[in-house]
What does this fold into?
Amino acid sequence: MIPAAVRSAIAEHARAELPNEACGLLLLEGDVAVEYVPGENASPSPYYFELRLDPVVWADLGERDVEQAVVHSHVSSPPRPSRTDVERIGLWQGLPYVIYSVRLDELAAWRILDGAIEPLPVSTPVS
Amino acid sequence: MIVVRIPPTLRNEVGGARQVEADGETVREVLDDLVERHPALAPQILENGGIAPFVNVYVGGEDVRTLDGLDTEVPPGGTVILLPAMAGGSSPSWSRPAVASSLLDLVGSTPLVELPRLSPKPAVKLYAKLEGQNPTGSIKDRVAKAMIEAAEASGELEPGRALLEPTSGNTGISLALVAALKGYPLTCVMPENATPERKRLLRLYGADIVLSPAAEGSNGAVRLALELAEADPRWFVPFQYANEANPRAHYEGTGAEIAEALDRVDVLVAGLGTGGTLMGAGERVRETFPDVVVAAAEPLPGDPVMGLRSLDDGYVPPILDVAKLDRKVLVSNEESVAAVRDLLRLEGIFGGVSSGAVIAVARRLAAELDEGVVVSVLADGGWKYLSADFWDADEEDVAASMDHTVWW
It folds into this structure.
Protein backbone atom coordinates (compact mmCIF):
# COMPACT_ATOMS: atom_id res chain seq x y z
CA MET A 1 0.00 0.00 0.00
CA ILE A 2 1.42 3.33 -1.06
CA PRO A 3 -0.45 6.28 0.49
CA ALA A 4 -1.33 9.16 -1.84
CA ALA A 5 1.18 11.52 -0.19
CA VAL A 6 4.06 9.06 -0.72
CA ARG A 7 2.99 8.40 -4.27
CA SER A 8 2.91 12.09 -5.09
CA ALA A 9 6.35 12.57 -3.52
CA ILE A 10 7.68 9.93 -5.94
CA ALA A 11 5.85 11.49 -8.89
CA GLU A 12 7.05 15.01 -8.07
CA HIS A 13 10.66 13.91 -7.74
CA ALA A 14 10.44 11.99 -11.02
CA ARG A 15 9.03 15.05 -12.82
CA ALA A 16 11.65 17.33 -11.28
CA GLU A 17 14.43 15.12 -12.61
CA LEU A 18 13.18 15.13 -16.21
CA PRO A 19 14.54 14.53 -18.79
CA ASN A 20 16.49 12.01 -16.71
CA GLU A 21 15.43 9.10 -14.60
CA ALA A 22 14.96 9.74 -10.89
CA CYS A 23 15.65 7.28 -8.10
CA GLY A 24 15.30 6.96 -4.38
CA LEU A 25 14.38 4.71 -1.51
CA LEU A 26 10.95 3.76 -0.28
CA LEU A 27 10.66 2.90 3.39
CA LEU A 28 8.06 0.28 4.24
CA GLU A 29 6.51 -0.85 7.48
CA GLY A 30 5.20 -4.25 6.54
CA ASP A 31 3.19 -3.65 3.38
CA VAL A 32 2.71 0.06 3.96
CA ALA A 33 5.03 2.62 2.40
CA VAL A 34 5.73 5.23 5.06
CA GLU A 35 8.25 7.52 3.42
CA TYR A 36 9.99 8.26 0.13
CA VAL A 37 13.62 9.35 0.38
CA PRO A 38 14.69 11.00 -2.89
CA GLY A 39 18.13 9.94 -4.05
CA GLU A 40 20.52 11.36 -6.58
CA ASN A 41 20.95 9.75 -9.98
CA ALA A 42 24.72 9.38 -10.11
CA SER A 43 24.55 8.67 -13.87
CA PRO A 44 21.95 11.17 -14.99
CA SER A 45 20.34 9.87 -18.16
CA PRO A 46 16.86 9.36 -19.65
CA TYR A 47 17.55 5.62 -19.80
CA TYR A 48 19.67 4.87 -16.81
CA PHE A 49 20.04 5.45 -13.11
CA GLU A 50 22.53 4.74 -10.40
CA LEU A 51 21.19 5.36 -6.92
CA ARG A 52 23.29 7.61 -4.73
CA LEU A 53 22.43 8.71 -1.20
CA ASP A 54 24.68 10.11 1.46
CA PRO A 55 26.12 6.85 2.87
CA VAL A 56 25.75 7.94 6.49
CA VAL A 57 22.13 8.98 5.93
CA TRP A 58 21.49 5.69 4.16
CA ALA A 59 23.16 3.63 6.89
CA ASP A 60 21.11 5.53 9.49
CA LEU A 61 17.92 4.65 7.60
CA GLY A 62 19.01 1.05 8.10
CA GLU A 63 18.81 1.55 11.86
CA ARG A 64 15.07 2.11 11.63
CA ASP A 65 12.67 -0.81 11.72
CA VAL A 66 11.62 -0.32 8.15
CA GLU A 67 12.20 -2.28 5.00
CA GLN A 68 13.89 -0.49 2.11
CA ALA A 69 12.83 -0.69 -1.52
CA VAL A 70 14.46 0.93 -4.54
CA VAL A 71 12.28 3.29 -6.57
CA HIS A 72 13.18 4.66 -9.96
CA SER A 73 11.36 6.39 -12.76
CA HIS A 74 11.01 5.55 -16.40
CA VAL A 75 10.68 8.71 -18.46
CA SER A 76 8.32 7.35 -21.07
CA SER A 77 8.27 3.56 -21.08
CA PRO A 78 5.83 1.53 -18.98
CA PRO A 79 6.78 0.87 -15.33
CA ARG A 80 8.05 -2.64 -15.98
CA PRO A 81 11.58 -3.78 -15.08
CA SER A 82 13.91 -3.73 -18.04
CA ARG A 83 16.53 -6.38 -18.70
CA THR A 84 19.05 -3.91 -17.28
CA ASP A 85 17.04 -3.74 -14.07
CA VAL A 86 16.93 -7.53 -13.80
CA GLU A 87 20.64 -7.93 -14.47
CA ARG A 88 21.61 -5.33 -11.91
CA ILE A 89 19.20 -6.23 -9.14
CA GLY A 90 22.17 -7.45 -7.11
CA LEU A 91 21.53 -7.46 -3.39
CA TRP A 92 18.00 -6.14 -3.86
CA GLN A 93 16.70 -9.36 -5.33
CA GLY A 94 13.58 -10.67 -3.69
CA LEU A 95 12.69 -7.22 -2.32
CA PRO A 96 9.95 -4.90 -3.58
CA TYR A 97 11.14 -2.96 -6.63
CA VAL A 98 9.10 0.08 -7.51
CA ILE A 99 8.99 1.86 -10.88
CA TYR A 100 7.10 5.03 -11.75
CA SER A 101 6.43 5.95 -15.39
CA VAL A 102 6.33 9.72 -15.74
CA ARG A 103 4.59 9.76 -19.10
CA LEU A 104 1.93 7.26 -18.12
CA ASP A 105 1.68 8.46 -14.48
CA GLU A 106 1.66 4.79 -13.49
CA LEU A 107 3.37 3.24 -10.51
CA ALA A 108 4.02 -0.47 -10.24
CA ALA A 109 5.86 -2.75 -7.87
CA TRP A 110 7.71 -5.94 -8.70
CA ARG A 111 9.84 -8.62 -7.17
CA ILE A 112 12.88 -9.77 -9.13
CA LEU A 113 14.27 -13.12 -8.08
CA ASP A 114 16.65 -15.40 -9.97
CA GLY A 115 16.01 -13.53 -13.20
CA ALA A 116 12.22 -13.83 -12.94
CA ILE A 117 9.92 -10.81 -12.61
CA GLU A 118 6.82 -11.10 -10.47
CA PRO A 119 4.26 -8.29 -10.09
CA LEU A 120 3.32 -7.11 -6.61
CA PRO A 121 -0.06 -5.54 -5.93
CA VAL A 122 -0.05 -1.78 -5.34
CA SER A 123 -2.93 0.14 -3.87
CA THR A 124 -3.20 3.85 -3.21
CA PRO A 125 -6.22 4.70 -1.07
CA VAL A 126 -7.87 8.01 -1.84
CA SER A 127 -7.19 10.20 1.16
CA MET B 1 38.65 -2.27 16.09
CA ILE B 2 36.61 -1.06 13.13
CA VAL B 3 32.82 -0.84 13.12
CA VAL B 4 31.22 -2.15 9.95
CA ARG B 5 27.65 -1.01 9.36
CA ILE B 6 25.60 -3.69 7.64
CA PRO B 7 22.62 -2.81 5.40
CA PRO B 8 19.32 -4.68 5.82
CA THR B 9 19.99 -6.57 2.58
CA LEU B 10 23.09 -8.23 4.12
CA ARG B 11 21.93 -8.78 7.69
CA ASN B 12 20.90 -12.40 7.13
CA GLU B 13 24.58 -13.10 6.51
CA VAL B 14 25.60 -11.70 9.91
CA GLY B 15 22.84 -13.13 12.08
CA GLY B 16 20.68 -10.03 11.82
CA ALA B 17 23.22 -7.60 13.27
CA ARG B 18 23.05 -3.94 12.21
CA GLN B 19 26.74 -3.50 12.75
CA VAL B 20 29.63 -5.84 13.40
CA GLU B 21 33.29 -5.45 14.23
CA ALA B 22 36.33 -6.28 12.18
CA ASP B 23 40.00 -5.48 12.36
CA GLY B 24 42.42 -4.02 9.88
CA GLU B 25 44.22 -0.92 8.67
CA THR B 26 43.02 -0.98 5.09
CA VAL B 27 39.69 -1.81 3.49
CA ARG B 28 41.22 -5.05 2.23
CA GLU B 29 42.28 -6.12 5.71
CA VAL B 30 38.94 -5.10 7.24
CA LEU B 31 36.91 -6.96 4.60
CA ASP B 32 39.15 -10.05 4.82
CA ASP B 33 38.72 -10.11 8.58
CA LEU B 34 35.00 -9.47 8.20
CA VAL B 35 34.45 -12.47 5.90
CA GLU B 36 36.57 -14.62 8.20
CA ARG B 37 34.18 -13.78 11.03
CA HIS B 38 31.08 -13.98 8.80
CA PRO B 39 31.86 -16.37 5.94
CA ALA B 40 28.36 -16.03 4.47
CA LEU B 41 29.23 -12.43 3.53
CA ALA B 42 32.14 -13.46 1.33
CA PRO B 43 30.28 -14.10 -1.94
CA GLN B 44 28.21 -10.95 -1.48
CA ILE B 45 31.00 -8.47 -0.91
CA LEU B 46 34.12 -9.91 -2.57
CA GLU B 47 34.49 -11.15 -6.09
CA ASN B 48 37.66 -12.09 -7.99
CA GLY B 49 39.82 -10.43 -5.36
CA GLY B 50 37.93 -7.13 -5.60
CA ILE B 51 34.79 -5.56 -4.20
CA ALA B 52 31.71 -7.29 -5.61
CA PRO B 53 29.83 -5.22 -8.20
CA PHE B 54 26.62 -4.95 -6.23
CA VAL B 55 28.04 -3.58 -3.01
CA ASN B 56 29.49 -0.16 -2.26
CA VAL B 57 32.02 0.33 0.52
CA TYR B 58 32.43 3.70 2.21
CA VAL B 59 35.12 5.03 4.51
CA GLY B 60 34.67 8.50 5.94
CA GLY B 61 31.56 8.89 3.81
CA GLU B 62 33.51 8.33 0.57
CA ASP B 63 33.07 5.45 -1.83
CA VAL B 64 36.39 3.60 -1.64
CA ARG B 65 36.23 2.98 -5.39
CA THR B 66 36.86 6.71 -5.78
CA LEU B 67 39.69 6.55 -3.21
CA ASP B 68 42.35 3.83 -3.26
CA GLY B 69 39.93 0.90 -3.57
CA LEU B 70 40.85 -2.02 -1.34
CA ASP B 71 44.06 -0.22 -0.38
CA THR B 72 42.14 2.70 1.14
CA GLU B 73 43.29 3.23 4.72
CA VAL B 74 40.78 2.85 7.53
CA PRO B 75 41.63 5.02 10.55
CA PRO B 76 41.75 3.23 13.93
CA GLY B 77 38.31 3.23 15.51
CA GLY B 78 36.80 4.23 12.19
CA THR B 79 33.61 3.11 10.55
CA VAL B 80 33.16 1.23 7.30
CA ILE B 81 29.71 1.42 5.74
CA LEU B 82 28.48 -1.29 3.39
CA LEU B 83 25.53 -0.40 1.16
CA PRO B 84 23.79 -2.27 -1.63
CA ALA B 85 24.51 -0.68 -5.01
CA MET B 86 21.60 -0.18 -7.33
CA ALA B 87 21.70 0.72 -10.97
CA GLY B 88 19.21 0.04 -13.70
CA GLY B 89 17.26 1.78 -16.36
CA SER B 90 14.26 1.86 -18.61
CA SER B 91 13.84 -0.22 -21.73
CA PRO B 92 14.54 2.35 -24.37
CA SER B 93 13.45 0.01 -27.15
CA TRP B 94 10.19 1.12 -28.60
CA SER B 95 9.76 3.80 -26.04
CA ARG B 96 9.37 6.45 -28.71
CA PRO B 97 6.38 8.51 -27.69
CA ALA B 98 3.37 8.48 -30.02
CA VAL B 99 3.37 12.27 -29.87
CA ALA B 100 6.62 14.03 -29.09
CA SER B 101 7.06 17.50 -27.68
CA SER B 102 10.45 17.88 -29.39
CA LEU B 103 12.20 16.22 -32.30
CA LEU B 104 15.02 15.50 -29.85
CA ASP B 105 12.69 13.08 -28.02
CA LEU B 106 12.67 11.01 -31.20
CA VAL B 107 16.40 10.35 -31.21
CA GLY B 108 17.23 6.69 -30.71
CA SER B 109 14.87 3.75 -30.14
CA THR B 110 15.53 2.74 -33.72
CA PRO B 111 14.10 -0.47 -35.18
CA LEU B 112 15.88 -3.79 -35.52
CA VAL B 113 14.95 -5.77 -38.60
CA GLU B 114 15.91 -9.26 -39.62
CA LEU B 115 17.75 -9.70 -42.93
CA PRO B 116 16.87 -13.28 -43.90
CA ARG B 117 17.84 -12.83 -47.56
CA LEU B 118 21.34 -11.64 -46.67
CA SER B 119 22.06 -14.31 -44.08
CA PRO B 120 24.43 -16.96 -45.45
CA LYS B 121 22.59 -19.78 -43.62
CA PRO B 122 19.13 -20.13 -42.07
CA ALA B 123 20.46 -21.06 -38.62
CA VAL B 124 22.27 -17.74 -38.39
CA LYS B 125 19.95 -14.81 -37.86
CA LEU B 126 21.21 -11.52 -39.19
CA TYR B 127 19.68 -8.30 -37.86
CA ALA B 128 20.18 -4.66 -38.81
CA LYS B 129 19.67 -1.72 -36.50
CA LEU B 130 18.36 1.05 -38.70
CA GLU B 131 20.07 4.17 -37.41
CA GLY B 132 19.02 5.98 -40.56
CA GLN B 133 15.62 6.32 -38.88
CA ASN B 134 16.89 8.96 -36.47
CA PRO B 135 15.56 12.51 -37.02
CA THR B 136 18.35 13.71 -39.35
CA GLY B 137 18.83 10.26 -40.81
CA SER B 138 21.92 9.05 -39.01
CA ILE B 139 23.28 7.49 -35.84
CA LYS B 140 25.06 10.76 -35.08
CA ASP B 141 21.83 12.27 -33.72
CA ARG B 142 22.44 10.17 -30.61
CA VAL B 143 25.99 11.47 -30.28
CA ALA B 144 25.17 15.12 -30.96
CA LYS B 145 22.30 15.16 -28.48
CA ALA B 146 24.35 13.40 -25.81
CA MET B 147 27.40 15.64 -26.22
CA ILE B 148 25.40 18.87 -26.05
CA GLU B 149 23.25 17.75 -23.12
CA ALA B 150 26.27 16.48 -21.19
CA ALA B 151 28.02 19.83 -21.72
CA GLU B 152 24.90 21.69 -20.60
CA ALA B 153 24.58 19.51 -17.52
CA SER B 154 28.21 20.04 -16.54
CA GLY B 155 27.89 23.80 -16.99
CA GLU B 156 30.51 23.83 -19.75
CA LEU B 157 27.98 24.95 -22.34
CA GLU B 158 25.84 27.95 -21.51
CA PRO B 159 23.62 30.30 -23.52
CA GLY B 160 25.80 32.78 -25.39
CA ARG B 161 28.39 30.27 -26.44
CA ALA B 162 28.70 28.89 -29.94
CA LEU B 163 29.47 25.40 -31.19
CA LEU B 164 32.40 24.54 -33.42
CA GLU B 165 33.06 21.05 -34.76
CA PRO B 166 35.36 19.71 -37.43
CA THR B 167 33.00 17.65 -39.57
CA SER B 168 31.62 17.53 -43.03
CA GLY B 169 29.56 14.50 -42.27
CA ASN B 170 26.60 13.27 -40.34
CA THR B 171 27.82 14.67 -37.03
CA GLY B 172 27.62 18.19 -38.43
CA ILE B 173 24.05 17.71 -39.57
CA SER B 174 23.06 16.18 -36.21
CA LEU B 175 24.79 18.97 -34.30
CA ALA B 176 23.06 21.50 -36.55
CA LEU B 177 19.67 20.08 -35.58
CA VAL B 178 20.43 19.99 -31.85
CA ALA B 179 22.04 23.45 -31.98
CA ALA B 180 19.07 24.95 -33.83
CA LEU B 181 16.52 23.53 -31.41
CA LYS B 182 18.52 24.59 -28.38
CA GLY B 183 19.47 28.02 -29.72
CA TYR B 184 23.24 27.77 -30.18
CA PRO B 185 24.99 28.93 -33.35
CA LEU B 186 27.04 26.17 -35.01
CA THR B 187 30.08 26.39 -37.25
CA CYS B 188 31.43 23.31 -39.01
CA VAL B 189 35.01 23.15 -40.22
CA MET B 190 35.51 20.91 -43.23
CA PRO B 191 37.95 20.32 -46.09
CA GLU B 192 37.14 22.57 -49.05
CA ASN B 193 36.58 19.55 -51.30
CA ALA B 194 33.72 18.17 -49.21
CA THR B 195 30.75 17.41 -51.44
CA PRO B 196 28.55 20.39 -52.39
CA GLU B 197 25.46 18.58 -51.13
CA ARG B 198 27.00 18.28 -47.65
CA LYS B 199 27.77 21.98 -47.55
CA ARG B 200 24.31 22.82 -48.80
CA LEU B 201 22.56 20.55 -46.32
CA LEU B 202 24.52 21.97 -43.40
CA ARG B 203 23.74 25.54 -44.48
CA LEU B 204 20.04 24.65 -44.81
CA TYR B 205 20.11 23.36 -41.24
CA GLY B 206 21.49 26.74 -40.23
CA ALA B 207 25.19 25.96 -39.74
CA ASP B 208 28.04 28.24 -40.81
CA ILE B 209 30.91 26.65 -42.69
CA VAL B 210 34.64 27.29 -42.49
CA LEU B 211 36.77 25.56 -45.11
CA SER B 212 40.16 23.96 -44.44
CA PRO B 213 42.74 23.10 -47.13
CA ALA B 214 41.68 20.13 -49.26
CA ALA B 215 45.20 18.73 -49.22
CA GLU B 216 45.14 18.30 -45.43
CA GLY B 217 41.96 16.19 -45.49
CA SER B 218 39.91 15.83 -42.36
CA ASN B 219 43.00 16.05 -40.13
CA GLY B 220 43.34 19.59 -41.47
CA ALA B 221 39.78 20.39 -40.44
CA VAL B 222 40.51 19.11 -36.95
CA ARG B 223 43.67 21.20 -36.75
CA LEU B 224 41.91 24.38 -37.91
CA ALA B 225 38.94 23.89 -35.56
CA LEU B 226 41.19 23.44 -32.55
CA GLU B 227 43.20 26.53 -33.55
CA LEU B 228 40.05 28.63 -33.86
CA ALA B 229 38.78 27.40 -30.50
CA GLU B 230 42.04 28.24 -28.81
CA ALA B 231 41.93 31.78 -30.18
CA ASP B 232 38.36 32.51 -29.05
CA PRO B 233 36.86 31.21 -25.79
CA ARG B 234 33.34 31.75 -27.15
CA TRP B 235 33.64 28.46 -29.01
CA PHE B 236 32.64 25.19 -27.46
CA VAL B 237 34.03 22.24 -29.41
CA PRO B 238 32.13 19.01 -28.63
CA PHE B 239 34.84 17.05 -30.51
CA GLN B 240 33.23 13.67 -30.90
CA TYR B 241 36.57 11.84 -31.20
CA ALA B 242 37.49 12.59 -27.61
CA ASN B 243 34.09 13.19 -26.00
CA GLU B 244 33.07 10.49 -23.51
CA ALA B 245 29.41 11.38 -24.10
CA ASN B 246 29.83 9.76 -27.52
CA PRO B 247 30.43 6.16 -26.36
CA ARG B 248 28.08 6.76 -23.46
CA ALA B 249 25.22 7.58 -25.85
CA HIS B 250 25.82 4.20 -27.45
CA TYR B 251 26.16 2.41 -24.11
CA GLU B 252 22.86 3.77 -22.83
CA GLY B 253 21.08 3.92 -26.16
CA THR B 254 22.21 1.79 -29.09
CA GLY B 255 23.71 -0.99 -26.96
CA ALA B 256 20.95 -1.07 -24.34
CA GLU B 257 18.30 -1.19 -27.07
CA ILE B 258 19.98 -4.18 -28.70
CA ALA B 259 20.51 -5.96 -25.36
CA GLU B 260 16.89 -5.40 -24.38
CA ALA B 261 15.43 -6.43 -27.72
CA LEU B 262 17.20 -9.72 -28.38
CA ASP B 263 17.57 -12.91 -26.37
CA ARG B 264 20.90 -13.75 -27.89
CA VAL B 265 23.72 -11.84 -29.61
CA ASP B 266 26.81 -13.69 -30.82
CA VAL B 267 28.33 -10.99 -32.99
CA LEU B 268 27.92 -7.21 -33.01
CA VAL B 269 29.26 -5.39 -36.06
CA ALA B 270 29.59 -1.64 -36.44
CA GLY B 271 31.73 0.69 -38.47
CA LEU B 272 34.94 2.05 -37.05
CA GLY B 273 34.70 5.84 -37.22
CA THR B 274 35.18 7.60 -33.92
CA GLY B 275 34.90 4.25 -32.14
CA GLY B 276 31.88 5.51 -30.20
CA THR B 277 29.43 2.85 -31.38
CA LEU B 278 31.85 -0.03 -30.96
CA MET B 279 33.05 1.06 -27.52
CA GLY B 280 29.69 2.04 -26.04
CA ALA B 281 27.30 -0.42 -27.64
CA GLY B 282 29.94 -3.15 -27.48
CA GLU B 283 30.38 -2.72 -23.75
CA ARG B 284 26.65 -2.70 -23.05
CA VAL B 285 25.88 -5.73 -25.23
CA ARG B 286 28.81 -7.60 -23.67
CA GLU B 287 27.34 -7.04 -20.21
CA THR B 288 24.24 -8.99 -21.21
CA PHE B 289 25.92 -11.43 -23.59
CA PRO B 290 29.45 -11.92 -22.20
CA ASP B 291 30.60 -14.09 -25.12
CA VAL B 292 29.62 -11.62 -27.83
CA VAL B 293 32.23 -10.90 -30.47
CA VAL B 294 32.44 -7.13 -31.02
CA ALA B 295 33.66 -6.61 -34.56
CA ALA B 296 34.77 -3.43 -36.31
CA ALA B 297 34.30 -2.92 -40.02
CA GLU B 298 37.30 -0.94 -41.14
CA PRO B 299 38.13 0.39 -44.59
CA LEU B 300 41.31 -0.84 -46.22
CA PRO B 301 44.11 1.69 -45.79
CA GLY B 302 43.68 4.32 -48.45
CA ASP B 303 40.10 3.26 -49.18
CA PRO B 304 38.01 5.99 -47.61
CA VAL B 305 34.61 4.41 -47.13
CA MET B 306 32.39 7.27 -46.08
CA GLY B 307 32.17 7.76 -42.38
CA LEU B 308 34.73 5.09 -41.64
CA ARG B 309 38.29 5.86 -40.96
CA SER B 310 41.17 3.48 -41.31
CA LEU B 311 43.32 3.61 -38.23
CA ASP B 312 46.34 2.95 -40.39
CA ASP B 313 45.71 6.34 -41.95
CA GLY B 314 46.98 8.00 -38.83
CA TYR B 315 44.58 9.21 -36.23
CA VAL B 316 43.46 7.07 -33.27
CA PRO B 317 40.49 8.74 -31.52
CA PRO B 318 41.09 9.05 -27.77
CA ILE B 319 37.74 7.39 -27.01
CA LEU B 320 38.77 4.28 -28.96
CA ASP B 321 40.44 1.45 -27.07
CA VAL B 322 41.38 -1.02 -29.77
CA ALA B 323 41.99 -3.70 -27.12
CA LYS B 324 38.23 -3.82 -26.54
CA LEU B 325 37.57 -4.90 -30.10
CA ASP B 326 37.41 -8.66 -30.61
CA ARG B 327 37.75 -8.46 -34.37
CA LYS B 328 38.80 -5.84 -36.87
CA VAL B 329 37.80 -6.78 -40.35
CA LEU B 330 39.12 -4.84 -43.32
CA VAL B 331 36.68 -4.12 -46.13
CA SER B 332 37.47 -2.74 -49.56
CA ASN B 333 35.37 -0.07 -51.27
CA GLU B 334 34.30 -2.64 -53.84
CA GLU B 335 33.02 -5.03 -51.16
CA SER B 336 31.19 -2.21 -49.40
CA VAL B 337 29.49 -1.08 -52.56
CA ALA B 338 28.53 -4.63 -53.54
CA ALA B 339 27.04 -5.19 -50.08
CA VAL B 340 25.14 -1.90 -49.98
CA ARG B 341 23.62 -2.73 -53.35
CA ASP B 342 22.64 -6.21 -52.10
CA LEU B 343 21.12 -4.62 -49.01
CA LEU B 344 18.84 -2.53 -51.19
CA ARG B 345 18.12 -5.17 -53.82
CA LEU B 346 17.43 -8.08 -51.45
CA GLU B 347 16.13 -6.46 -48.28
CA GLY B 348 14.84 -3.10 -49.48
CA ILE B 349 17.10 -1.12 -47.17
CA PHE B 350 18.71 1.94 -48.72
CA GLY B 351 21.88 2.25 -46.65
CA GLY B 352 24.92 4.47 -46.84
CA VAL B 353 28.23 3.02 -47.96
CA SER B 354 29.45 2.45 -44.41
CA SER B 355 26.36 0.24 -44.02
CA GLY B 356 27.69 -1.75 -46.95
CA ALA B 357 31.00 -2.22 -45.14
CA VAL B 358 29.18 -3.33 -41.99
CA ILE B 359 26.94 -5.74 -43.89
CA ALA B 360 29.92 -7.20 -45.73
CA VAL B 361 31.62 -7.93 -42.40
CA ALA B 362 28.40 -9.20 -40.80
CA ARG B 363 27.92 -11.69 -43.64
CA ARG B 364 31.52 -12.81 -43.41
CA LEU B 365 31.30 -13.42 -39.66
CA ALA B 366 27.86 -15.00 -39.98
CA ALA B 367 29.36 -17.50 -42.41
CA GLU B 368 31.85 -18.53 -39.69
CA LEU B 369 29.01 -19.51 -37.32
CA ASP B 370 26.98 -22.71 -37.42
CA GLU B 371 24.10 -20.95 -35.72
CA GLY B 372 23.56 -17.75 -33.79
CA VAL B 373 22.64 -14.10 -33.99
CA VAL B 374 24.61 -11.38 -35.75
CA VAL B 375 23.61 -7.75 -35.24
CA SER B 376 24.82 -5.03 -37.60
CA VAL B 377 24.50 -1.34 -36.84
CA LEU B 378 23.69 0.59 -40.04
CA ALA B 379 24.73 4.17 -39.42
CA ASP B 380 22.72 5.99 -42.07
CA GLY B 381 20.67 5.79 -45.24
CA GLY B 382 21.90 6.23 -48.78
CA TRP B 383 20.09 9.50 -49.46
CA LYS B 384 23.01 11.78 -48.77
CA TYR B 385 25.21 9.87 -51.19
CA LEU B 386 22.82 9.79 -54.13
CA SER B 387 25.01 11.90 -56.37
CA ALA B 388 27.85 9.37 -56.08
CA ASP B 389 28.62 7.42 -59.24
CA PHE B 390 29.01 4.02 -57.68
CA TRP B 391 25.33 3.21 -57.27
CA ASP B 392 24.99 2.24 -60.90
CA ALA B 393 28.64 1.86 -61.93
CA ASP B 394 29.69 -1.47 -63.43
CA GLU B 395 31.47 -3.63 -60.93
CA GLU B 396 34.90 -2.94 -62.37
CA ASP B 397 34.23 0.80 -62.42
CA VAL B 398 33.26 1.03 -58.76
CA ALA B 399 36.79 1.68 -57.58
CA ALA B 400 37.30 4.45 -60.11
CA SER B 401 33.92 5.99 -59.32
CA MET B 402 34.90 6.46 -55.68
CA ASP B 403 38.22 8.15 -56.29
CA HIS B 404 36.87 11.58 -57.09
CA THR B 405 35.86 12.83 -53.67
CA VAL B 406 36.82 12.90 -50.06
CA TRP B 407 34.11 10.77 -48.56
CA TRP B 408 33.94 12.08 -45.04
